[in-house]
Amino acid sequence: MAELAISAHGLGKRYRLGQVESGIKRLRRVVRSRARAGSHWALTDLTFDVREGESVALVGRNGAGKSTLLKVLSRITEPTTGYVDVRGRVGALLEIGTGFHGDLTGRENIFLNGSILGMTRAEVRRNLEAIVEFAGVSKHIDTPVKWYSSGMYVRLAFAIAAHLDPEILIVDEVLAVGDAEFQRRCIGRMGEVAREGRTVLFVSHNMQLVRSLCERAILLDAGRIIDDGETDSVVRRYLTSIEPVDAGRREWLDPETRPGDESCRLIAVKAVDDKGGPSSTFFSSQEIGVVIDIDVLAPDPGLVLAFDLVAADGTNVFRSYSLDGDAGPRPGATRGRREVRCTIPGALLNSGRYIVNVRVHARGIDTIVNEPAALRFDVIADHGESSFVSNSYARPGVLAPMLSWEETEVGELADVAGAGSSGAAAKTP
Fold first, then answer.
1. Which domains can be identified in the chain, with CATH numbers?
2. What is the 3-state secondary structure (H, E, C) of 292-348?
3. Which pTM value belongs to this model?
4. 3-state secondary structure of 33
5. DSSP character for 105?
6. Region 75-99 average pLDDT
């Protein structure tokens, strides 16, 4: 039986709530009011083991405690209660440029991170070429990293974490920052690390990626472990635990807590029928409109809206951008409220439940909004019935498109055993 790589017992993490203030001000406030700042438990009584060579995903809603747990496991922060034993060298990528010094060059930061991991200069030098090649920063490797773009930063950070021979690789959702090619290479590298028998802990809202990379998943909610087991089972429980929205509409009413930043805020997301009315249930023959309402607070012509359509089992069906098509909308061109609609054609989706993850990007680099499970709706199949089966559910898969078929006779049959035959040409649309 494999040895334990991580063993956590009664793990808890509490944060104090309240204003940042000087010691004198706080003493005066406490003396006068006898009031004490409140607290928030990000983690509560977590007990679990991870064996060497396991690939484990941490899944759950925003604020469930996933990132806090990774920081505790990475020794970035200490637990308030309980303890955790981590056996092995940890390579962690939790935030862009974690452990980087802005005034040092990329090359110097590679050696710095290697020394933090307990490696000798000779060990780091042996991996240097592979790190630089993977990150694609050879032209800038001797430039201080404070001048790097966010993409260069995260590429170099991941390359260091994944190539400096960690026994345990810990990766947070930060991979969402990279482009598609970078994400493909990262996923491939994480798969290599897992196949080499090393331990991988992975946090992502992409359930398809979780299912492909991890054999086990842990579901967190409000800082507690809700489920721990085989990935498909845990993913299904997580997706079904998402609270349904009201009649195909999700709205954020408080201006201060709306997803986004000072440049753009997400107001609402709706699934609408061909008459524009919100609905949570559609027939598969119907068009489905996904409507995103935003407030543009600072004009930015590079603002791009997008959404992922995800099936109930975590399969990412597709992602669509507002730039798609010949003349996509430019919602950030001027200040004000915008309603942007994307239409999913009828006779495309199969029966099932679908989840909409909303994203807003600026200039293709900065992620302003990344709101998983912003909306969900159900599709009931009413197209594609076949005369050979009793119902439309005989079509497996996420999509059930009605595709065109045709038949054309291209010549007579070859003479087989002295029996030749011919037939009339036919073409069936």
1. 4-240 (3.40.50.300), 249-380 (2.70.50.60)
2. EEEEECCCCCCEEEEEEEEECCCCEEEEEECCCCCCCCCCCCCCEEEEEEEEECCCC
3. 0.58
4. helix
5. B
6. 79
